Amino acid sequence: MALDVDASPSTISTQQMQVRAEQIDILFRNTPFSLLTNLLLSSGLAWVLWDVADHGTIIGWWLTIAFFVVVRVGLLFGYRRCPETGAAPWHTYLTIATVLAGGVWGAAGWLFFIPDSPVALIFVTIVLAGIAAGSVPAYSAWPPAQYSAIPTALPIALCYLFAGGHFWVMGLMCLLYLANVLTSARRLSQGLIESLQLRLEKQQLVQQLQTEKAAAEAARAKAEEANQAKSRFLAAASHDLRQPLHAVNLFVEALRHAQDADKAEQVLAYLGASAQALEELLNDLLDISKLEAGLLKPQNMVVEVQKLFDGLAQELRPIAEQKGLDLGFVPSRLTVWSDPQMLARILRNIITNAIRYTDKGAVLVGCRRQGDGEVALAVYDTGPGIAPEYHEAIFREFYQIGNPERDRRKGLGLGLAIVDNLCRLLGHRLDLRSTLGRGSVFSVRVPVCVEQDVQSPMPDEATSLGFGGWAVLVIDDEPAICQAMEEVLVCWGCPVLTALSAQDALASMAAEGFVPDVIVADYRLRGGAKGSETIAEVRRALGRSVPAMILTGDTAPERLREASASGYLLLHKPIQPARLRAALMHLGSAEALAAASA
Q1: DSSP 3-state assignment of 123?
Q2: What is the torsion angle, in degrees rounded to the nearest 10, for the CA atoms of residue 479, residue 484, residue 488 and residue 489?
Q3: How far, CA to CA in Å, does 232 sit from each of 105, 229, 350, 394?
């Protein structure tokens, strides 16, 4: 496969350019030996012809050969110093000089064609044949330079042809020899170029394999790290879940043996605190799963920074005061563009973390407008500070500095992981600056908002409206859950029917004449049934779209995505009674509005 040596660099591929560069390099590497051969043979030929040819002609011819040798030596040094020069590369100049030198050699066949001196004629013929043949290996890497064989051998062939007598046979042999030299040169060049291409392809393949191997090693290391992180995550989650569960079991046993009401009340308070701790951990785990599943969608709006600060101050200042810390908020009139609930969660987690790890001093929260159209919401603390090597690790799930015993009073190690994920989801930059012994600064960069028409606050989940009398169908494959839901709903004045499956629900409804106003179903039921399918089956049997919600204890991202895609109101276990009550009122209100509009 030949390479178009005249093609411009812009019209050939990268591989072809690499092959071309290799060809040029080989051309210049072979040039020194060719030049040495030129000097030796020209000197020898001049010595043989000295007695039979004109001395001036011999000297003039030899000096011309030497001149082109010097020119090519200069080009060789120029190439080694600078491979390319402007629009005309060194190899172009070398090719021209080589072809001209070939013409000077060919001139010897005409100048020194002396039939009366057979020895001289034979010597000239042999030297020119050798120069022509030598161009085959010397310039095999660069075909244009091989054309120097034509002006070298053609003149003496023509002299033989036109000399008369039997010399025409020698002329014909010279032409056949020249054709053979050019054919051999072409084949040798093609073979060399193909070998260069194969070598470059092999090198590229080796580089590609090395790159793929490095990528595979990196992926394997990442997978191993992820597996180890998962193991650490599960181990920490298992430990932190067992602790409050263990306390719950002990408090339940203590409650059974309580001798008086005061003691029972105290144990109930402890039991509630343990249940609250368990719920907090499960909620954090659920938030992590929601973020991984992509279920949380930002609802950006104009947020007044001062209102955000006021809410956080009211919520967190008592916690800081219990530790003897000052929690301050710098007043601000700025507004930002973000999801108010997610932004509040980010700042709440950062402030809570600062209070937890600061033993004395203060925690200060403020904001400052940046020059790039953003506002930096910053939390300053006077805590122990964080070493630079931990600045990335602290944002991993369950990672904590200085808490190997997993003391819950120091948190669970999920707060900053949630902060990092929420910032990524919102597109807010999260920065950390810290000095050991002096404290830390966490800052969140939020787009500034010029508009002042702040959105009206979202209505609270809970409301004082009652919903007594609404018939609730509860479908859950756990009898304990069914019993607990029935006890709570009956306390709220709701007729309740519980069932373990869709078939059980339909049979009980037919037997008791129960017509539900609201359906509450678990997402995963026995036999692989799903809550969404069960609700749809009950609705078909009733012939109307009864308001429904799904309760699930799943935290796997794929399960959360499936449940969310069902279109029903989705709540997560464990659920606070107030949240359940608000959800039921929401569904009941939707039913009332639908009935009114019908």
Answers
A1: helix
A2: -10
A3: 82, 5, 23, 14
- Tokens linked to 370: 């940046």
557 in Cβ contact with 285 (< 8 Å): no
Which letter does DSSP use for residue 526 in this model?
G
DSSP classification of residue 408: G
Rg from Cα positions in the chain: 46
Determine the Cα–Cα distance for residues 594 and 587; give it in Å rounded to an integer. Answer: 11
> Is 206 strand, coil or helix?
helix
Residue 211 CA: distances (Å) to CA of 32, 199, 205, 222, 328: 39, 18, 10, 16, 53
Query: What pTM, to 2 d.p., does this model score?
Result: 0.42
Structure tokens at 193: 């170029």
pLDDT digit string (tens) for 385-412?
888 877 777 777 656 555 444 444 545 5
Residue from 442, 441, 509, 449 nearest 475 by CA: 509
**What separation, in Å, do the N-terminal and C-terminal C-alpha atoms of the chain show?**
81
Rounded mean pLDDT, 251-263: 72
102-125 core/surface letters (b: 16 or more CB in 10 A; e: else): bbbbbbbbebbbeeebeebbebbb
Distances (CA, A) of 434 to 327, 376, 386: 19, 16, 6
Q: How many helices (H) and strands (E) does the chain have?
A: 16, 12
Rounded to an integer, what distance in angstroms lies between the CA atom of residue 242 and that of residue 32?
83
**C-alpha to C-alpha distance for 274 and 254, rounded to whole angstroms:** 14
Q: Give the model's pLDDT for residue 352.
A: 84
- Calculate mean pLDDT across residues 165-194: 84
Rounded-to-10 torsion of CA 277, 282, 288, 291? -120
Phi, then psi, of 548 in degrees rounded to 5: -145, 155
Collapsing DSSP to helix, strand or coil, 360 comes out as coil
At 560, is the pLDDT very low, low, confident or very high (cuts 50, 70, 90)?
low
pLDDT band at 47 (very low <50, low <70, confident <90, very high): very high
Give the pLDDT confidence score for residue 598 in this predicted structure.
Answer: 41
Neighbours of 300 (CB within 10 A): 18
Contacts for 128 with CB less than 8 Å, ≥ 6 apart? 105, 106, 108, 109, 152, 153, 156
Tokens of 462: 């809970």
What residue has token string 């954090």? Answer: 284
**Torsion-angle region of residue 543: left (phi > 0), alpha (psi -120 to 50) or beta?**
left
Residues 6+ apart with CB under 8 A from 538: 473, 475, 502, 505, 506, 509, 516, 519, 546
How many other C-beta atoms can be found within 10 angstroms of the C-beta atom of residue 574?
13
DSSP 448: B
